[in-house]
Every structure is written in C-alpha cells, then in structure tokens.
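During the first year of the project, the team set up a workflow for recording each protein of interest as an amino acid sequence followed immediately by a discrete structure-token representation. This format lets reviewers and collaborators read both layers of information side by side without switching files. As required by the reporting guidelines, we include two representative entries from the current panel. The first entry is reproduced here exactly as it appears in our internal archive.
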Amino acid sequence: MRLLFFALSTAGYGETVIGTSLAQQLRPLGVQSHFVISAISEPVLRRSGIPHTRIDQEMGPLARLIVDDLVRTYRPDAIVLADYFTFTGVFQNRYRLQPWFIEEYGLPVLPIDIWEWEKTSFAIDMFDEDRHVDKRILEMPAHLRPVPLAHPEIEGRAYPFRLWEGTERVSRRTRQHLFTTFGLGPRDRLVMLPVANWQQLPEDRYDSSIGTHVLRGVPRLLAHYLAQLPETTHFLLIGQAPPEFGELPAERTHVLPPCSPARFSTLLGSCDVVLSLNIGATTLARAITSDIPGIALTNSFAVPGTDAVEQVAERLGGLTDFVREWLTGMVPLHRLRMWPLGFHDFLEPILTANPYTDAFPDIELLDEPAVVQGIERALYDAETRDRYAAARAAYLTLLDTQVDTRAAFTEAASRAGLTL
C-alpha cells in the first residue's frame, strides 16, 4: 500500500512528527509513504528517511500542479491528512486553493484527527472570538487519532494510534556530557521551556488586542515564577525565546538556536522537567511517553475587567501582590490551555475522562505558590517525583495494553475500502 501524506504546517512541525511517526510504525506492514510538506518540516523528513515533496507558499495555486504530478507518478492508494485542521486552512490561506481538490483524485482520505473533532462544535475559542472549522471530516469513513492527546480506545469510526513508538530518554553518559557542556553539576536540574514558532508570531499576526498583550505578558509572569526556583535550577530555551525570558538569571539560562530533530531529541531526553504553556504540545506528549516529567500551565479564568480580579482571588484562595498587579494590567484576559491562542473550551471534550491528564500535573497559571512549589517539588522532592513517575508508568502500561497502531490502521483502512 502507498500512502500520500499532507503535512503542511508552516509554523511548527508537531503535526509532521505525528505523521512520520505513523508512517514509520506502518513500515512492517509493507506500507510505503510519501509526504507533501512545507519548508519547516524538511529536517524531520530528512531524519526519517521518508521520501517527500516540498511546496512553497510563493507557488500559490500552482502548487496544485506539483500535487497533480505527484499523484500521477507515485500512484498512492490513499491520502492521509497530517493533520485535518492544518490541512483545511493551509491550502486556502497559503496557496489560495480550495483544499478539497484532493477528492478529484478519487482516493480514500484518512484524516489524522488530533482534536477528536466529532466531540466538538467545530468552533475554536481563540482570543475573544470563536473560529469555525470545516466539518468535512464528518463525511470521512475513518479517523486516525494520535495517543496522546486522544483517548486510547476505539470510538465509532475513530481509531487510536501511538503518537510515538520508542523513547526520547538518553543514556546517563549522554546526559552527563550535555550537563558538562552547559556547565551544570550533578546536583543541578534542567527545565525545558518549549516555545513553538507559532507561539511567537509577530504581534500584528494576532488581530485581537487580547492576543497582542497576552503574547508578551504571560512570559513575563512565568519568568517571575521561575526566578524563585533554587539556584541549582537551569532553564533550556530552544529557538526564538520570548524576550521577557531575558529576566531569568542569565548564568542559568541556556538559549540555543533552532536545531535538528535529532539534537532536539537529545536535549529533551536530558531534561528533568518539561514545562509547557500548551497542554496539547507534541513535546509534552513525547516527554510523558518517554517517562520524562512534564508540567502544563493553564488559565481557567476569563477576566474581562478589573472588577473580575477579586473573583479570581476568591476562587484561588488569594493572589500574590505580583500576580494581582500583573492581572490588573493584563485585563481583558482570556482562558488559556494553549498560550497565546486560548483553546480552553475547545479542548474540554478531549481532556474529559482522558487518562493522559493523570500522567502529569496541570497547574493554574495565576496561582503563584502552586506553580513555584509545583515545579520545585517536581525537580527536587523525591516523594513527588516518585508519585509522578508512578502516574506516567500507569499511563504507559495502559497504552501498551490498549493501543495497537498497526491493528488500528488496518481496521481504519478496511473501513475506508482499503486492503493491506
């Protein structure tokens, strides 16, 4: 069987990693794959060894000619969208093409369904408005859901597959070498702060005034929290870090330029904790499935004006002076599960009764003592670390017993009229 994957994200390669992971897991079934990608994903495909074709935004509608030729020469049996949400927007917004031209090829379309779309209203709460998404996925006979973030059980036409097969953990020798390179000693701890390109787009990219100020304000708040951690705590930033992170202790902050996927995996596997402002981040999921501690920070409070600050204080049992002053100057503040966009209500169905959320703590962003103490205990307190390790182990055991990528794909393909 030949699969043609579309992985066209232009501001990060998390979706591409999900797609290549699926393709690699299907190789033992004799499944061949070819990817259509944007430039940002080329390092991922080069590392994977999977053939690929790149299309660029400058091509505009002419990109269709490249795809037409590829379908004619590669002769795929099916198309896989990595992922559905990205695909629906990229061709229209970047290439001025109606995305469903692919149906003219007469091939089954298997969407990778990261967000469990059937459970949503097809509206994403982004900043202060809802963004509506094409419902075409409801017409497709089978959906492929990566775990995590998705639920691990088969649900109707939705089939779960493992996001990542293997581990990012590195050897003690590799970790020691990296620590020595950074000037860290054996008692030091390293916190990774992953920030994707799409989280640092220029402020004018965000139409909402809420988006522009939260883009700058949340990193300033987080830097204040992190600066309170013990002096043996170091911070790892990769890529274009928010300038507000410049307030972190310079001697304990390690900023690296964007690196290859292999180098990133080594860095991830050497960390003591991954701290994410995006509960749906692929990096957080890779950490948990590799038995690396992770922490998510979310904001459950909509704060439309200064009069709502006291309501937040009451629900949290108080606010520190710093957070109170910060929040007063930050209103209106929207609810956040994926900084800076929001996605709070949209992610509720996929997170509800999901065992993935038991594998790491999810801490309220505005609760300064909870954030600082939570990170510190995850780094230094043996009892806390053991408890988190047991939760990760339980989740990984569940995945091992419930999620079979190759069996799930075989069933999904059959439902779409394909035979392996």
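The second entry, processed by the same pipeline in the following quarter, appears below.
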Amino acid sequence: MKYNPNEIEAKWQKYWLENETFKAENNSTKPKYYVLDMFPYPSGAGLHVGHPLGYIASDVYSRYKRHQGFNVLHPMGYDSFGLPAEQYAIQTGQRPEDTTSVNIDGGTDKEGNKIAGYRKQLDKIGFSFDWSREVRTSNPDYYKHTQWIFIQLFNSWYNKNSDKAEDISTLVSIFSTGGNANVNAVCDENIEVFSANDWNAFAKETQEKILLQYRLTYLAETEVNWCPGLGTVLANDEIVNGVSERGGFTVVRKKMTQWSMRISAYAERLLQGLNDIDWSESIKESQRNWIGKSVGATVEFNVQNSEAKIAVFTTRPDTIFGVTFMTLAPEHELVSQITTAEQKAEVNAYIEKTSKRSERERMADVKTISGVFTGAYAEHPFTKEPIPVWIGDYVLAGYGTGAVMAVPCGDERDYAFANFFKGQQGMSEIKNIFDKDISEAAFGAKEGFQLVDSDFLNGLDYKKGTQKVITELEKLNQGKGKTNYRLRDAVFSRQRYWGEPFPVYYVNGLPQMIDTQYLPIILPEVEKYLPTEDGLPPLGNATIWAWDTENNEVINTDLVDNNTVFPLELNTMPGWAGSSWYWMRYMDAHNESEFASKDALAYWESVDLYIGGSEHATGHLLYSRFWNKFLKDKGFAPTEEPFKKLINQGMILGESAFVYIVLLRSKTTLSNSFLSDNDSDSDDLENLLKASTAPKSLIISEEIYNDIKIDNRNDLVDEWIKNNTSGLNNIQIHYSGEGVIKTSVDISLLIGNSNIIDKEKLRNWMPQYRGIPFLEEDEDYIVKREVEKMSKSKYNVVTPDDICNEYGADTLRLYEMFLGPLEQAKPWNTAGISGVFGFLKKLCRLYFDDNGLIVTDEQPTKDNLKSLHKTIKKVAEDIEGFSFNTSVSQFMICVNELSAQNCHSRAILEPLAIVISPYAPHIAEELWSMLGNTGSIATVPFPVFEAKYLVESEKEYPVSFNGKMRFTLVLPLDLTKEQIEEIVMKDERTIKQLEGRTPNKVIIVPGKIINLVG
C-alpha cells in the first residue's frame, strides 16, 4: 500500500460534504467557539498560495477546538460586490453577477478563460468550513438586511447624554416639547437654535431638513476623491500615489452631495473599546492614530473687512500670542469669500493644482512646502493685530475645522512654511513667545519653558496658560475648551453599479426610506455600466428604477410624476457596507425575516478568533466596530465589540524571475523609403526593423548586465552584434535609460525547481519574445531571482491547485504552517515542498507498508510514550499560542524518533493521528479509518498530556577530569552525592584516568555534572 494523497483527499472531502461533518449547531450543549476569516473578494485570478495562509491557521485552530469538545462555527462566504467586477464587466461586456458567479463556482467566462472557482479551490485544501451558512454580499437575500441596517441608521441620532444611538422619534419628541437649545447630540456644525413653537410651526420639509443634520446617516456636500476615468468616488485605500489603484486613473478632490455616516459619534467608544480586546498593539495604535483624539480649544478669528469668521481647533491655546499667520485648506468654503481680487488668479490656480492630490498623499508629504496668500487678514482676538491668511495643502478641509492658527516658534511645519515664504507679502516675521532659542528650529515641547511676550500669559507654563486663555476666550465669546477627533464621518455613496442599492426615493429632493417590509430593493438591469452621458451614476441608465408609493414597487422611470411615483437613489453603497456586519449573518444565515434571531445572536455573541490582513486596520476593522456598536445600542447585537481576538497573518512572498534585455538601435544611412512621412529627418525604426533581418533585442546574462552598468559597454555584446547583424550596418546599443532593461518572466518557464529558463518556452510565452536571441545560445540561462509580493502582474504566482495535484493538500497545509511564524512575511520556495511530502510518507510507514496495516497491540515502550507525550504537550501549547510552525517541527521529530524506535503500537499511533489531524486532516482521517475506527476523527477528544511520561529516572552524566570530559555514565537520578562518588571512583575508566592518584576534589552536582580535580 502506498500513500496516494489525491485519492485519499478526494475520498474524505466527499465524506465531509455528504455527512456535514463541520456543520455547527445553534442550540448545542457544548461550549461555543467562533472562528472567522476575513471576507475574501472572489477575483477571476483565483487563489495563489499566499491567500490560504490565514485560512489554514484558522482551520488548524478550529479543528483543535472541536477535538477539545467545542461547538465550533467556522464559516466562509464572499464579499462579492465591488469595483473590480464592475470594471471587468465594462471591459468585456459581461454582467457583473455572471462573472462573480463564475469566479466563485467555476466555469468558463465570455473570453473563453477557464476559471477554477474559489469554492473548488478552497474545498481542495480541505478546510472545515460550515458551508451550509455561506453568504454572498451580492445576493438580494443578503443585501436585503444591509439595506435594513441602513434604514435603522437613518432613523437614529446620537444622544451624548445617554452616550448611545436612539430612535429619531425621541429627538422629534424633544423638539416638539422643548426645541433644540438643550439637545446634546452629535450633529452638523452651526445648527440654528429653535424653540418648540418654532418646530411645531415648521413645514414638514423644513423639519426633514433639520433632522438630516442629526441623523446617523445623512446627505451632505462632502469633499471626495473623484476619479473621472472610473466615473466614481474612491476611498483613500483605493488610491496609490495620487491615481486609482485600479487602472491608474487621475483622482481629484471634488465637492459632491453624498451619503455619509456619523462614525465620528462613536470616536470615544471606538477608542476606549481597544482596551477590552485582544489585538496586537500595532493594530490598536493604528486605530488610535486614525481616531486621533486631541484635547484643546476652538478659537474664532474675525476676518477684517468681512462678516466671515475663521474657526480653528488647537491643542496649544497657550501659544495664541505666537500666531504669525493663518492657513486654510484650499477647499475651505471661506477661501472664495475672503480672497482679494489681486490674489484670485493665483489662489484659483493653486486650488486647481491641489485638487489633483489625494488627502493621503498630502498628509504623507512632509517635505514639499507650497501655499498662496489670499490677500485677506484675520484679527487676533486679544491684540486685534492683523494676521495674514494663507492657503496651503498641508491643511485638510475634513480635519478639524480645515484651518490652523500657525505658530512657527512652536511648530516645525509652521516654522518651515514661514521661513520658506519669508520676506513675501503676507508673511510676517516669526514671533517668539518662549524663553528658548528658536533661531535654528521651533520649540515644540509642552514643558520646560515659560511664556514670554504673551500679555496676561507671561510667566505661565503650558497647563496654566491653556486654562487661562480658554477662560479669557470664553469671556470674549470667541472660543472654548474642546476635545477633538481626527476621525471623520465616512462617505457612504459610490457612483457605481455593482453595489447595494439604497432603499431610498426622493420627494422634492429630500430622501425617503422605503418601508422595510418591501425589501430588498433589487439592483436593476442596465445596458451599460458607465455613467450616463450627462454624468449621472450607472443606475441612471436603468429604465426600471422609480418607486411607486401606491403599489410599493419599482417601476419604469418614465412614469415618474413626483406625485405618487418618485425617482430612486442612483448611487450605490460602498464595498464596506456588506462586510461591516457579515459575521452576524453567519450566526443565522437562512433567517428570512431578520438578519439573525435574538437566540442565535445570544448564543454566538461575537467572534472569538478573527484572522486576516493588517491592511484592514483603519478601514474594515473600524467600520465593523462602528456598526456593531450601533446595533448594540439599538438592542440587536449582544456585545459592544465584534471580534475578541485578532491575528494578522503575514504575507507569503513570491520569488520572481528576471531576464536582462538589451534593446538594439541603428545609426545606419538609410534610403528615403525608411523615412517617416511627417519628419524627413527621423528614422522610421519600425519600417527599418521590418525590412531587416537584424534582431530588435538580445537577452544577456546578469554578469554582462552588471559589466554594462559599470562602463557602458561590453565586448561580448559588441562581438555578437558584429557576427549576427549582417545586412544592417552600425547597430548600436543604447546602454543607458531604457536601453538595457530587467523584466520579469513567468516562473512557470523555469525548468523544474531550478533557476534555468526554458528558452523555447520563453520564446512562445509572449509575442515580444518570439525570435529573440540569447547572447550565449548554447549555454544555460540563469535567471535573476528576487523575493517580492506574490502577484499575477509579477508572474510569480504559485497556485495551490498545482501543489495539491502534485503533493496533496496535507503537504500544502503543513508546508505553509512550517514556513515561519504566522504573523511574519515569508518567502515561498516550492523546492521545500518535497521535504514535507517526504515527512508524510514517513508518517504513513509507521502505520502500513506495501502489504497493508502493520499496527500492533503491543505495549508501548517508555521511549514510545515519551515521544508521544512530548508531542501532545508541544502541539497543544503551540496551537494555543498560534506558533504553528514549531508544531510541524515537533511532528517531524516525533516521527523520526518513533521510526528509530521501530514503533508500531496502536496505543501510540492512534493518539498521534488525532494530534496531527488539525494540520493534515485527510491522512489523519485515513489512518483513523485504517485503525478500525468508524466516523470522522474530527470530533474525537484530543489526547491528554501526562507529565509522568516525561519524568526522567536516569541521567547520563558527563564525567570530567580537570574540566575535560572523558566519558559518560548513566546513573539513577535518586542517588545521593556520596553514592555517585562511590560508583565513579570504582569505575575502571576512572581508575585508568587517575593512574593511582587521589583527586584533590570531587565535584558532584546531582542531575548535572561530575568533575574530578587534581
């Protein structure tokens, strides 16, 4: 009998599916444990070996917990809405729902490409997912509940007094009986005060507009990242170096009316909640920085010759007498009002330039200094002196008030800005208010100084100065103490097709919610997925997209009469909508009436272990915590936090392969037939190369490439050109710039696991390589290898399907865990797979040989038991500590020891199969079955470690003479020093060493050393 992984794994994967082995129960008497992987997006590219790393780790832990007697929920689904599917639909003319379905279930797309499908790829690796609970965010039976949650947010406000979200009806009740003067809510800035009588006298539309200023999801004009090339708003994490991550299109800042969510209402709770969860400090710190709590004061500066007032938030109100200038964000609404006619052209040009940079880019760029003087002056609240007002892109409209009071003597960025524009109109001399030297740099410390040249603050320190200035500002009614947060409300609209439709229609431009009993509002069919000709989002192309309020259904848009039929919202929800609550849907995935029942929510409560990438620290993880807290406020979620423990798996890196190519160019004298029609003085290189037998390029070795880099020439290349370019004179290499390039090639072109490229495969790989010669055609070409991110674009992807087909899923699972600590980045090396495969074959040889089972009922030896219980202890500790790589090492040690001991005892091998089961479940199931057991090994109790088998009764002592070890002696550990000395002195080897001498001293430490001195 031989180890045949493909046959064994197919057998047990079928068994698990048919018997629903991993189906979790909602009403089990067992203790619950909920293990979750971050929602994958099902791209057409499928899985590479880097994707399953976290899934394998979570699966090992899930299987271990089942062995421990837990009712484990380990579900899987798909975050299947999103921009990539929509862009693919635009490019290929396919429906996003069709391509998404093929990407998940497998099949052939419109282009004829065979797609393996995420589900089949995942099943092939042997994960213990409860597939009965699968969810897809793009299915109407799922997004029906996302729409329902949106409506709950719309119908809620945040009461600061109760510190939670409450139904909007309670706010209406307050307004109708007492007005809004004493309402302590998270709401828009600058809300006008009204009485109860005012409220009750307002028209319904006026009341609705006021309520929009308080709702947790609301419409407002917001600065967004607008991408004209994609026709949509982008989130910050969808932008790289100022362009869209997808397609590389230009992104500009633009004001648009958008749906937003008041995540800022939960800033303090999001901050404090980090103290109650078991997450890495790095992730917690990322969230703390993103939330950005600051304690300080708001200050109002009047603008001279204007009714305008500039509000700023500062953490250093004590430095108010050091204000030299003010800076507004280029997008600040006051800029257009206060800019003078003389400065308007320069200011407008700067605003246009700034709009092309994303907020993230502006925040990260601390080196570039740029700005423009508006021509306006503000008035200092105490001295009444004029303060020049500038705009600068280092100030963001959405952070704080979008304005800063610049104190160069106390802030490095203000200091650099003031010095850069020193001497220009509108830039005053830096004023120093510290008893410190600022000739070389700003003084930014909050201690170790006294204020000077600061009027009534002279002689005070930071703490006393802050308290004093706030008191005086309040007297002037130009400021007050305040706690501020960097966290801004989240834009919730996207100008896309492939997303959740809003359950919203509009009456006189005001949003109305569709009654929840009529959900879901299903995404309509459209002919094209691009914006309309007049710039409306893709849903503007829909012909059936209007809401009939009499029949409560979606009907033809031509029937809109704004009487009983109204237009529906044309934007869709962002990608993070469906992923902000999905863990709760898994708890009760088939409930049609609610997103999950109270009983299911009460039983599962929250996720016990969450595994995923650290790149979601300030996106998904913040949004999901926000939604969970909101649902807790409204009585739906049972816990404040959704994820108790979070582990971020590291990235598996690919090893790319590169070749070096010399581009050849000609300087020969040409006939007129080669000249371009539009330029008689230029060579038409394309025609030249078509007419010539000369090659366009040449592949050279890394060694020659390095020589060229040093002296811009290489004799071997020159000689090759001379011998191989007959028919065309004066071929020359452009060594610099694009003349010699390093380009990545597909690693599948390499021969076996070597670094030697198959030259013919390379020539047939892509059109540009056909006919391309190698400088040394008769020799092996060794590619350059570099470790970098595994990516389809870098041609360094290894698919798990290939590994599973050749070596089996158990080998893949063990190897990925063996690569290194889970949370660290690790390079992939396919050559290492064979060692793990060999280990599994060696494991099998303990159980069977060519003739079948060789397990016996013989009593295990002391060494057998020691090897087993060492492994039980180590593996249990490693899994609990998420040190999966060291468990695999222990398996190898154990199998080597048992093989050396010629152990075939059932008492050892049966528990060993259970211990290895979380890591290599297929072979464990097969061995368990071969041993005569029925049913799955998956829920068999994990073996109990017994310390007695590791207690040593003997010790092998090194016996030394004057510190040099001469021989060893095995003695019982319970001997006294005197008994040990007696045995040592009588040993023939001791007598021989001493040659009749008597040692001066005999040093004995029981259990450790024996040393005879003198």
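For the second entry, the following points were noted during internal review. The chain is about 30% helix and 20% strand. The two ends are 62 Å apart (CA to CA). Both points are flagged for discussion at the upcoming steering committee meeting.
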